[in-house]
Amino acid sequence: MGPVSFRSYREVEGEDRSRLLEQVTAQRERVARRLESVNHVVAVMSGKGGVGKSHVAATLAAGVASQADRRVGVLDADLRSPTVAQLLEARGPLPVTDEGVDPAVGRGGVRVVSTDLLLEEGEPLRWREPSSERFVWRGVLESGALREFLSDVVWGDLDLLMVDLPPGADGSVDLKELVPNMAGALVVTIPSEEARRSVARTMRSALEAGVPLLGIVENMSGYQCDDCGAVRPLFEGTAGADLASEFGVPLIAQVPFTPAGTDAGASAAADLVEAFLGVLP
Amino acid sequence: MKFLCVDCDEQMAFEERKEPGDGTFGASFTCPRCGHKVAMLANPMETQLVGALGVQIGGRTLDEQPMELTRRSMVGREDAFDDAAPDRPGTVTWSAEGEERLAKVPTFVRGMVKKIYAEWAAERGIREITPAVMDEARTDLGLEGM
User: The pTM is what?
Assistant: First the structure.
């Protein structure tokens, strides 16, 4: 029996009924349409977990909404470790209409969507069967969920949509593909050298993907005494200033660790909001 | 993706989609000239990879529902979504048996599944959704297990 001769995909002129490419293109177009009413999409990112990235995102969102009287939304893209909804006191359930899924409303009227509102209390992010070869498709599912959080949530008219990215380099790259005209990213670090090394990698990835870096926030930048107001070192290192110098990106704030509920904490938050508004395009 | 009947040099027509509920996927195609049939069978990994993109082999027959991929794929809390939007007047009704079967679908995704069945039935002029209608829609839409 000789070789079988048959036409190639392009030589067969009939319709490709699945239209997979068209389906993917339609998904991207839905994202673009949904975000037409959003003025600025800003990512909050870090290379390292535990630097207070989500806390900075929540502080900024609530502060921009209340101090500057802007309409603000927060998309918690940290799907596996969501915290923003809790920080902004946003609660579900999320109403579903023909228009899409309505976001929860948190402190300061901030509109919030997060897997924290979708997962059972204390349960990790899990996907349905099959349970084998998870590593292959988990990332695709997570990207798909992020896309739906952008396209299928009724964000409405917003001055600012903040996207709280998971730690690591991939988040801003994925977001840039979904939102090509995003305003940029705010980078959060702590002063330590290990944070600097990790965050530098993430910043490099973001720049390579074409994500403008708006500024750097050095969080936990010393400990502010509630009695005398003096700021003492909390970590060794000057990561914020070093990254600013290395990448030519402004260090917009150095936020000290302050005891909860103090005037110093409120003042630091207000300063952070002012500094952020100063770099927003 | 296209299927070609090599003997007839004719593009085969998509016939039916099948999801047997074990994570795999099948689709059958028929040659319009000689009637020869073939089935494409995908293993769980291949099925999941395509499903994870939020696309459907064989093409979409209904518009995508809000957060459809997330709701179909994520293991979520029962009260995450409020699908309590009132049914439109003149839309389909549910038989008692249909309602009973629908009640077995996890609430995380139930409201969306109910809407999908209703839209599918309305498009075909079906007035009442029964388990038999659900079976047909499930095969057509790839809603196995729902």
Answer: 0.85
